[in-house]
Amino acid sequence: MFKSLSFWVILALVAGLVFGALAAPWAKGAYGEVFVSLEAVGTLWLNALRMTVIPLVFSLLVTGIASVADAASTGRLAVRSLIVFAVLLLSATAYAVSVLPAVFSFWPIDPGAAEVFISGAGARAVEAAEPPHLGDWIAALAPSNPVAAAAEGAILPLVVFAIFFGFAATRLPLPQREPMVAFFRALSDTMIVIVQWVLIAAPVGVFALSLGVGLRSGLEAAGLLVQYLAIACLVTAGVSVLGCVFAVVWGRMSIKTFVSGAAPVLAVAFSTQSSLASLPLMVARTRDAMGLSPRVVNLTLPLAVAVFRMTSPVTNLVVVYFMAAVFGLEFTPQQIFAGSLVAVAVSVGSVGLPGQISFVASVAPIAIAMGVPLELLGILLAVEVIPDIFRTVGNVTGDMAAAAIVEKGARKSSVDASG
Question: How far apart are CA 360 and CA 369, in angstroms?
Fold first, then answer.
């Protein structure tokens, strides 16, 4: 459904931009109210997406942490795999926050294009808020009232509470824990159904949003979208390189063995945009071409597909940094740390969701934590299908690199035990 929907969404984006650019003279005349109403449809659609963010993120984090805890209970090999996943996720996040400022410094957003893009998307230009003192920021990490934090959109304290809640739930006896996890799984599934309903109307919503952009900025917005796509694809492709480096340096595998073994799998990932669809060939190639043991492969790779997305923090931070650059915002160290923490946390919860749903569930909390308005999300969602190709390729590379690293650790443990 979502692949065919992506075609219509991109078509609606182009149609809205072109129609808006051509119809700009009419919007200033007798038909002005009609165009205002059409733009309101886009705002309505975007708000319908935003209304699911808080309950979806909280419930996904709780159930995601519970699934990781259950996976860890399967033994030392699973625990080792989870540790490797955590290190790779943190490394990918550090890569993103290090590279992105340099990328936007080398290829800055044109202020004039950004201004018309913002006005066209129906958003207001914003000024950077006064950063809080470090002590106040630390004290605010734990919400005194989680319900009030949710109502106010204070996403970082809510994420901290959800993490504690999820881990605390794993300490309950099974008869108590199972109904609670089932409730939050049902809540997240319900929010996903709502998002799916909203996404059915994505061509209409994106057309209305892009119409407003076209009315005010003409086709100048296309240049910004091309810049976003180029940066998103380039930075996300770097995750694959990072995965190869980890496989060689930490996993002690030759670059030739890793690349030749992974190449057919990456071709499947590129064409299907699905880590799950790539799993059978991933298993075969890591066993046969890379020489990894079936014991490691059969546990680590399915676990990686279930709970690990190496590109998630990177691609989501690309979106947030791009929106911040359009709005002319600069981040404080506290905001970068907050965004990084939320990016890593939501990467676990959003695993397994279709790309367009995980885009909303993952990017919005990071943007809120870093103080970036969400008004541009609807436009960027329309072109998400292109960066999603590089997301999948990077995720598959990370999965296979993790398997190589776990294999090295398992062999070392076997040698130590026999010695």
Answer: 14
Contact yes or no for 407/250 (Cβ under 8 A)? no
Task: Give the Cα separation of 350 and 307 in Å (integer).
Answer: 9
In this structure, are residues 286 and 403 in contact, taking their beta carbons and an 8 Å threshold? Answer: yes
Of residues 166, 144, 141, 167, the one with CA closest to residue 155? 141
- Strand intervals (E) in 303-409: none
Quote the CA–CA distance of 358 and 153 in Å, as a whole number. Answer: 19
pLDDT score for 211: 77
Q: What is the DSSP string of 351-382?
A: TTS-HHHHHHHHHHHHHHHTT--STTHHHHHH
Q: How far is the C-alpha of 325 from the C-alpha of 99, rounded, in Å?
A: 14
Q: How far apart are alpha carbons 45 and 202 in whole angstroms? A: 8
Number of independent structural domains in the chain: 1
Parent domain of 282: 2-418
Task: Provide the CATH number for the domain around residue 43.
Answer: 1.10.3860
Q: b or e along 174-198 (b: 16 or more beta carbons within 10 Å of the residue's beta carbon)? A: eeebeeebeebbebbeebbeebeeb
pTM: 0.77
Question: 149, 161 in Cβ contact below 8 A?
Answer: yes
Residue 28 is given by DSSP the state T
Tokens of 148: 């009030």
- By the 8 A CB rule, do 101 and 333 touch? no
* Number of helices followed by number of strands (H, E) in the chain: 19, 0
Series of mean pLDDT values for 10-residue runs along the chain (419 residues)? 65 80 64 70 80 80 69 66 92 96 94 76 52 59 73 72 82 86 87 81 81 66 86 95 95 92 87 75 88 85 81 94 93 91 80 63 87 85 82 93 87 51
For residue 5, the model assigns a pLDDT of: 66
| Burial class of 305 by CB neighbour count within 10 A (0 to 12, 13 to 18, 19+) | buried
Which pLDDT does position 172 carry in this prediction?
84
